[in-house]
């Protein structure tokens, strides 16, 4: 199949402490990963043309937003984070600048500091807990661009790291604390998970007294 007609808008990327690009060899360089595992294995004559690969460049985010809102994506494909973040739309933790559901819903592409819980989760996942090695900033498309897609498909196979976010995404009212809950408002969104990710330890231990009733 020739992929010359395909356009790919990459949703997020990790940045260093100055908001700059990471080396492509860095474990959290999403561009490096996609180039090695998604683009490079395909015959160049059949692959998605380089001009059709849109990376979240902090210097042209307004242009990406305009493109995606003018012509919504056919498919938004990805996963979710430990706090239910979609792309890098994290739950905002700033004590003096809280985020409403409506603000989250209307959020667009931006550069931001990564939350402490995101840094800790990524450190545990990849660096044996060495949080000092985790990129402290990121760039992301906003929920407005993502929710404009005709179809949304999110998948996770990372077990305990995503179990609570999945349950909240499925059963909680919409809340800015878990951005994934906004997918409940989308006409064609699907969450897929492994059995391990869909199984929550709290549901397996009715004898625990956690004050949840």
TrEMBL record:
Domain of life: Bacteria
Molecular function as annotated in GO: glucosamine-6-phosphate deaminase activity; identical protein binding
Biological process (GO), any one: N-acetylglucosamine catabolic process
GO cellular component, one term: cytoplasm
Protein name in the entry: Glucosamine-6-phosphate deaminase
Originating species: Nocardioides panacis
Origin organism lineage: Bacteria, Bacillati, Actinomycetota, Actinomycetes, Propionibacteriales
